[in-house]
Amino acid sequence: MKFIAYSDPHNHPHQSYSKILPDGMNSRLVDIGRAVKTIYDAAEEIGCPVVSGGDTFQVKNSAHVIAFNEFSGILHRRSKVANPDQFDIINIGNHDMATHDGSRHALESLSYLPGIFIPHGASVSFAHWGEGIMFAIIPYPMEHGRFSEDKFRGMLKRAIEEVENAKPYTAILLGHLYTHELMKKHLDRGGDFSGKELMKHFDLVLLGHHHVHDVILGPTDKHGRTKKVVSIGSPIQLRADERGDKKGYIIVNTETLDFEFIPIESPEFHYFEGEKTIVPEKITGDFVSVKVKSKAEGTRVKTLLERHGVAEYRIEVVPEKKTARIDLTPGAKDEEIITKYLESEWGKTDLDHDRLKKIGLAYLS
């Protein structure tokens, strides 16, 4: 069978790189909602379940009411067509959690919808699609408002025990964590655990939290399938530092453990240095930052960006720094250094050179 996996939409009216549309809606919330709807529309067309890696919302004490209503509407429509035997699964990420121990989260009121499985935010959960596919679902292990390794190790231990007892044809771990391998590759720092260690117990590991889509290939299982750890990635670019990252969702084949990445068209981030580096045909509707060397260049860039209909732009004027280069003989004395400087293009002045030389020598002495 096949299913769709996505993660980290962060439904929220983000203030950065956003504007208020004529109807009063936040443009970034609309962008995110459109991407999420694309995913669930694709699932309905294919006729397959949907799995989310977490961070549905961007909770800061509470979920934004319009963001909640928009996603709630998608799930209520989804609930009416979801297969009760192959139900949708939505994990709980750190940005979904409303309490410091993760026991309360923004999706609680949606967990009662038929055909949608939403786990408790503070413990490991298990879900079965028929007799052959078993999910161990580990939400973000939060304690005192931050990641708890002890809590994670406890949930992982129980997940491994349950999977080894059940011995399903396909064991899938769904988590909201970083791996050492992917963090080292993308951010040059450590993660929360080793992806290779997890593949000793699970056939497929699907992860939210890291917004970059990537995969770690593992050994072959007893059925001849290549095990994998997949960082699902976010469905759209959410921050400027995500520019260049491919965004979308994946379609997973449980028979082979292979997957297909499906890109989603959405506004992207661009950065250019100088007006001559801008690619006009690629920026319409996107977010653009440009570094220029003068106000005049900035004015020309502003005109160019507005003419090509970018969603938002930022222009930074950074004047070019000039440095003096003067050829000197090794061990040159102070008087020679000052004389050569005053004779160079950098030392051009209408002031008296002899007087400047005396002042310079007095200062250096």
Helix and strand topology:
Layout: E1 2-6, H1 27-46, E2 50-52, H2 65-79, E3 88-90, E4 116-117, E5 125-129, E6 133-138, E7 142-143, E8 146-147, H3 149-166, E9 170-176, H4 180-187, H5 195-198, E10 204-208, E11 214-220, E12 226-231, E13 248-253, E14 259-263, E15 269-273, E16 287-292, H6 295-307, E17 312-317, H7 334-343, H8 353-364
Parallel strand pairs: 1-2, 2-3, 3-4, 6-9, 9-10, 10-12, 15-16, 16-17
Antiparallel strand pairs: 1-13, 5-6, 7-8, 11-12, 13-14
Helix pairs in contact: 1-2, 7-8
Entry keywords:
single chain; 365 residues; alpha/beta; six-stranded mixed β-sheet; 27% helix
Can you offer a commentary on this structure?
This protein is of the alpha/beta class and 365 residues long. It folds into 3 domains: 2-263, 4-Layer Sandwich (Purple Acid Phosphatase, chain A, domain 2), CATH 3.60.21; 269-317, no CATH class; 334-364, no CATH class. 27% of the residues lie in helices and 22% in strands. It has helices at 27-46, 65-79, 149-166, 180-187, 195-198, 295-307, 334-343, 353-364; strands spanning 2-6, 50-52, 88-90, 116-117, 125-129, 133-138, 142-143, 146-147, 170-176, 204-208, 214-220, 226-231, 248-253, 259-263, 269-273, 287-292, 312-317. A 6-stranded mixed β-sheet has the order 4-3-2-1-13-14. Strands 5-6-9-10-12-11 form a 6-stranded mixed β-sheet. Strand 11 (214-220) and strand 12 form a beta hairpin. Helix 1 packs parallel to helix 2 (65-79) and helix 7 (334-343) packs antiparallel against helix 8. The chain is elongated and about 95 Å long. The mean pLDDT is 90.
